[in-house]
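Example 504, ligand adenosine-5'-triphosphate.
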Amino acid sequence: MLPGIKTTKNYNVNSFSVYLQSMSKATTENTLQAIISHAKEYGFVFPSSEIYDGLSAVYDYGPYGAQLKKNIRDYWWNSMTQMNENIVGIDAAIFMHPTTWKASGHVDSFSDPLIDNKDSKKRYRVDHLIEAHAEKLIEKGAQAEAIQLLADMEALLGKDDFEGLKKLIETNKIVCSVSGTGNWTEIRQFNLMFSTELGSVAEDANTIYLRPETAQGIFVNFLNVQKTARMKIPFGIAQTGKAFRNEIVARQFIFRMREFEQMEMQFFIKPGTQKEWYEYWKNERMQWHLSLGIASDKYRFHDHVKLAHYADAALDIEYEFPFGFKEVEGIHSRTDFDLSRHQEFSKKKMQYFDTEVNQHYIPYVIETSIGLDRMFLLILSNSYEEETIVKEDGTSDSRVVLHLPAKIAPNKLAILPLTKKDGLPELAKELMSDCKKSFHCFYEEKDAIGKRYRRQDAIGTPFCVTVDHQTKEDGTVTIRHRDSMLQERIAMNKVKELVLAHIN
Ligand code: ATP
């Protein structure tokens, strides 16, 4: 059991009011803006092809961002493939045979309803348009009306009732934020898959898709993996990699991107055992999040009421981002839908022979699927703090600090000689060459020590070591802890041990 983690269904009064409490709008937007600026200024995330004014909803990761992203990915990968003997990893290609996406249902039903405003030509995802209106109602104090609106929307979306949704928009007098008019087109479905062509000669070219999820690469390799790694049910296959979705409206920085990375694990089980494994993975995944030191009240479960075509149970793990509680990970009980469909479309048997019961069957699947970029934003949001420091003499100072968990911070240790002379750099470099074999270190001689500390705080380095004149005399250094800013004197040859104790 996971004490302290709330569960919500779709929009009911309780869940919605929790959502609203988190939405004091001006402050939340400022916080997100501050995080975006900080991420750019300190080399975490840049807009893609910025010199050409960027590309909507596509981002590049800078030096500290790429390292932080890799550390999150490794932390997930190890928690799956190293900590579980019955989970193995694969790395499937982004391009897949086009029939894959017919079998998976993506060609027919991977779409969102959209609507255009005829005056401004601005395009909206219908659910986002209605949700934004509900938020405005709340700001005006019309909470009951907002809840009713969202409940009606859920019901109509569940039935794919586009006429009903359009009426709902009209009767609520929902207008475009640009033109201010309610002059809407009909609602249409918009497929989110990007397509391209394989083959150099136009006539021979085949339309193929950039994968919208990594999961299908696992399903089509189910038997290859099971046989070559000699896996016995229950077992899992994990994969991380890029996915692409032509999101209608991309919002909130790296929360919703058109090119992003997923970390997915498909766990193959005996039919009939899906309920217990669903509960198992729900708990395991939440424990993984909490193991990063994030407070449990920042999380909640959101049970799906409307299930995807492949699922018999599903939930989202939601985190309280600066713009409210939003999905970071999905846990889905996918039945035997995917393997059965691939069997049907490929005409290849997707069955497993269970020696314990002497039976062939198509396994059921529990999926855990988390967005790496969303997890990155979660970590940034959770770590970012603009702190005011009151000094002993009563004056105050401020710093921006990233309280990154030490085990995933890009740099673990900054090594700072107090001056550039008197043999201090030589001593500091000795420490550097010893420690860098074990973890990422950063070396810097320039600027006053206080300034150097602030720069390390801003990129989330958990420890700074200062090598000074006393080091020459007694072999000790000052180690400074990022969060408490406490400084202690320890033997230089104990530094590596201390840092390793914190990051492992
Ligand atoms: P949403 O409802 O936010 O569109 P989803 O339910 O479609 O997400 P899934 O298909 O379950 O998402 O994908 C699994 C995970 O992949 C999500 O929990 C999220 O972390 C991540 N993800 C999905 N779409 C995007 C995106 N456009 N940008 C970044 N991450 C994404």
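Summary: DSSP finds 17 helices and 24 strands in the chain.
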